[in-house]
Amino acid sequence: MKVLVPVKRVVDYNVKVRVKSDGTGVDIANVKMSMNPFDEIAVEEAVRLKEKGVVTEVIAVSCGVTQCQETLRTAMAIGADRAILVETDAELQPLAVAKLLKALVDKEQPQLVILGKQAIDDDCNQTGQMLAALTGLPQGTFASKVEVADGKVAVTREVDGGLETVSLTLPAVVTTDLRLNEPRYVTLPNIMKAKKKPLETVKPADLGVDVTPRIKTLSVAEPAKRGAGVKVPDVATLVTKLKTEAKVI
Ligand code: AMP
Questions:
Q1: Number of Cβ within a 10 Å radius of residue 86
Q2: I need a surface site. Which of 53, 116, 166, 192 has the fewest CB within 10 A?
Q3: Per the domain annotation, does 36 fall within a domain?
Q4: Edge to edge, what strands does the sheet with 172-176 contain?
Q5: Is there an atom of ligand 1 within 6 Å of 204 CB?
């Protein structure tokens, strides 16, 4: 059983991004880039399924610039067997990524695709759902537990009121939530081993996909600066201020 794991190269979660002065986007020049944290969880889950003997091959896929190779090498250091880079300098929006992934699903015929629930740069939370729609596969989103058995995958989902478990017939699309697992640290020997694993590069045109953006960003702005707080001497003053100044009670 093959598992396809799409991994996105994003600005590292520790970096405080700065909005460009012309408001056209955020400045990512000379900024540390890493694998999207939810995708690390997806790779970890796929590798654990392989270690349990449920899965035979884990294929990592990244769509984007040449440097996404580094992200794919990290995925292979965690334990993915091989990688595919869909190389393009074009801006990729979720629909374009979903179409590229659909082309790879058609080619590779995986039984399971495990994506992150969202990319921390665009916060779209769309690609997995769009991929499920384009491929006609069942989807289990925001997974906090994944169990594969008898041609089905049981996905426990974090929903508002608690947990919901859905049973999907394979092949299926799953997206990961934060509590699914804690990804392992990549060790130096595994980083070295990952350098020798196969990494294939294709272009969107090879997959017959038009990645032209459908959505135009009009402007990007910093959130409003928060004013400084004040110290109050006692609870009575606090309550008065909440009533008369903040008018929240
Ligand atoms: P998004 O819909 O942009 O929030 O992304 C959700 C998930 O789709 C991510 O966690 C990745 O698993 C996958 N994904 C999005 N963009 C890419 C990309 N450029 N390359 C590979 N996977 C991607």
A1: 26
A2: 53
A3: yes
A4: 162-169, 152-159, 139-149, 172-176, 112-116, 2-6, 57-64, 82-87, 199-202
A5: no
Q: What is the pLDDT of residues 16-57, one digit of tens each?
A: 999 999 999 899 888 999 999 999 999 999 999 999 999 999
- In angstroms, rounded to a whole number, what is the distance separating the alpha carbons of residues 145 and 155? 6
Q: Is ligand 1 within 6 A of the CB of residue 144?
A: no
Minimal CA–CA distance to 220: which of 1, 9, 25, 13? 25
Q: How far apart are CA 19 and CA 24, in angstroms?
A: 8
Q: Give me ligand 1 centre to Cα 8, in Å.
A: 5
Reported as a single tens digit per residue, the pLDDT across 97-154 is 999 999 999 999 999 999 999 999 999 999 999 999 999 999 999 999 999 999 999 9
Assign residue 58 the CATH number of its domain: 3.40.50.620
Domain that holds residue 129: 2-244
Instruction: Give the count of domains, the chain.
Output: 1
DSSP 131-175: HHHHHT--EEEEEEEEEEETTEEEEEEEETTEEEEEEEESSEEEE
